[in-house]
Amino acid sequence: MITCVTFDVWNTIARIEVVYRRLASEISTYLGKPLEVVLKEILDVYSKAKELRRKAAFEEHRVVEESCVMMARSLGINVSKLKDVIAKVFYELDPKEVLFEDTLDTMHELKNKGLKIGIIGNTLFWPSALTRLILVKSGISTYIDYAIFSDEVGICKPDRRIFLKALEALGSEASTSVHVGDGIVEDVGGALSVGMNAILINRSSLSSAVIRELRVAIVKSLSEVPKVIEDFA
Fold it and tell me: Domain residues of the chain, as ranges?
């Protein structure tokens, strides 16, 4: 029986593209460059930074700082100015724009089932404090029993240690827990490495599937998660 569900944040329960488009808008105004040009630069450096983080090219405790420097150089902007703009974007964001439509309903349904709910998130370009701000403003934090982020512990998914820390804090066993995320390596791979079940969110998928023998499921939306969890029982 599943007793605990943990979630990734960006591109799982919240749209990262909303953040990057707002960031691009602010920077394009500041630099006097076309919005779409700046947005492309941001998305390009995002892909490169994610790959470097996956390869452990950044120092574990300096991922946010080093990736932020990387973005600032790519955009041709001062690092401190970039940090100020990122903070401004987060404080002005409407959480309704950021959350996927089925996020709150899914959290509510899971909590009503008596499940523990956790967050296991990686950070890149901004500290977890800003992500936590969105969780609070959106109402998500009311459903969360425990949240852990890579910049707080110096450990990035898929490193099994961050999953183990979350499970310990939640008082849950891996075999009765499920992790939900959009990353095959970071989320699915990391969860399976500690014996958790894993659900991959793939909103472009044509169909959903549950492979019980592998303890893995693929779903097209968060709203499918409560039902799929029953298939792992």
Answer: 4-15+98-232, 16-95
Q: What DSSP letter does each residue of 102-146 carry, written as one string? A: THHHHHHHHHHTT-EEEEEE---SS-HHHHHHHHHHHTGGGG-SE
Which CATH architecture does the domain made up of 16-95 adopt? Answer: Orthogonal Bundle (1.10)
pTM greater than 0.85 (yes/no): yes
Each residue's pLDDT expressed in tens, for the chain with a length of 233 residues = 999 999 999 999 999 999 999 999 999 999 999 999 999 999 999 999 999 998 989 998 999 999 999 999 999 999 999 999 999 999 999 988 999 999 999 999 999 999 999 999 999 999 999 999 999 999 999 999 999 999 999 999 999 999 999 999 999 999 999 999 999 999 999 999 999 999 999 999 888 999 999 999 999 999 999 999 988 87
Fold adopted by 4-15+98-232: Rossmann fold (3.40.50)
